[in-house]
Amino acid sequence: SASAGDYIFRAGEIGTSMYFVQQGTLSVVSSDGGETILNVLHAGSYFGEVSLLYSGTRTAGVRADTYCELMKLDKADFWECMGFYPRSAEVVKKIAELRMNANRDAEKTKHSSPTKRANRRASFDEALNMTLRKTGAKADGAKASGGSFRRSAAG
């Protein structure tokens, strides 16, 4: 669990696990010390997969906005799950790529106007939804960008 204001991890730290949000709200924050909010996560979302898949270091920080209950998946178990569910693994990889690109773009445009930031967010949501449609996954919750997905029964 985490209390409001607690950091689950900070940008630049070594990633050894990912997390699933059971309850609460968290902000994904840029490497500028948490001043720029990149995304807001709610129950049903997951985070931390990017460092497990690619860099080994966290590309962004995650801070609890409210009291949160989280489930932790260690790196070895993550890779075991990826092997058991290759189609879901592809969706996780695509979402991680989109998140990395969105984080990179946010770092470049953190001093841009609110309109440009809103347009970047809309582009991210559009790209994520296109990826989910192509892979047959469906988003759970109000926004696909929260990071929660499930395999469709038809896929």
Please explain how this structure is put together.
This protein has four helices and nine strands. Strand 3 and strand 4 form a beta hairpin. By secondary structure, the chain is α+β, with helices and mostly antiparallel strands. The radius of gyration is 15 Å and the shape is globular. Helices cover 41% and strands 24% of the residues. The termini are far apart. The strands form three sheets. Strands 1-6-3-4 form a four-stranded antiparallel beta sheet, with helices on one face. It has a three-stranded antiparallel beta sheet with strand order 5-2-7. The protein has a two-stranded antiparallel ribbon with strand order 8-9.
Give the SSE string: EEEEEHEEHHHEE
**Mean pLDDT, nearest integer?**
78
Compute the separation of the termini in Å. 34 Å
Beta-strand fraction estimate? 15-25%
Number of helices: 4
> Total number of β-strand segments?
9
Helix content: 40-55%
Give the neighbour order of strands across the main sheet.
Answer: 1-6-3-4
Structural class: alpha+beta
- Largest sheet at a glance? 4 strands, antiparallel
Q: What are the low-pLDDT stretches, counting only 5+ consecutive residues below 50? A: 138-155
Seen as an oligomer or otherwise, the chain set is single chain
The best one-word shape is: globular
- Rounded to an integer in angstroms, the radius of gyration calculated over CA atoms is 15 Å
